[in-house]
Predict the structure.
Amino acid sequence: MSELDGCVFLSWRSFGNWYGKAKLHLDGGVTAGGQGTVDDFDSAKKVVFYSGTLNAHAGIDLLLDAFEKIGAQEIELWICGKGENQKVRKMAKADARIKYFGCVSEARLHSLCQKASVMVNPRPSRFLANRNNFPSKLLEYLSYGKPVVSTFTPGIHPEYIPYLKIPAEETPDAMASAIMEVLAWPRTQVKERAEETQQFLAKSKSWKVQATRLVSFLESVVSNH
């Protein structure tokens, strides 16, 4: 990679570890203005939402184990994603609160996201692949204006910390505790977090902002070549 004129990284860890002469950290973008509001969901029913692949690397097992510790009957776990996971099917069959939707269309996914109370990214740090990965679902989750509970893997830039609820540990107990804490937030706190998050996204993560940064970087690389 030392022969490259420049490199663009999604992962914060990979960006920091590369010592090439020109580099840019660009982890993605979101639609300006967001895709939902905190008023989209039914306050009488709390929905914990997960979308992603159904394997241990993505953290679905950690989330399932955490949800098993949550006994409140008004709290549901909605799961969307590709892959085959017998644990998901077994627990959904045994616990009526767990809804497994499988792989859904973009329109259906959007509708489900709008109804979520809290969105979860449970990707564990212990897997080597996750150390150099940026979970792009974070930007998608945050764009809906809902609270986001997430592990903090090395590929995530520290600038996201104020907008996430990060469990104290990557354990089922800590994940369950973080989810329950967020679900107990008063509506005023949820709205305040949503407003702060949308300001952050508009300032630094809109596609217009990110495209402008990329074009400037490419022009710089070409001019210095």
Notes: The beta strands are 7-9, 23-25, 46-51, 75-80, 98-102, 118-121, 148-150.
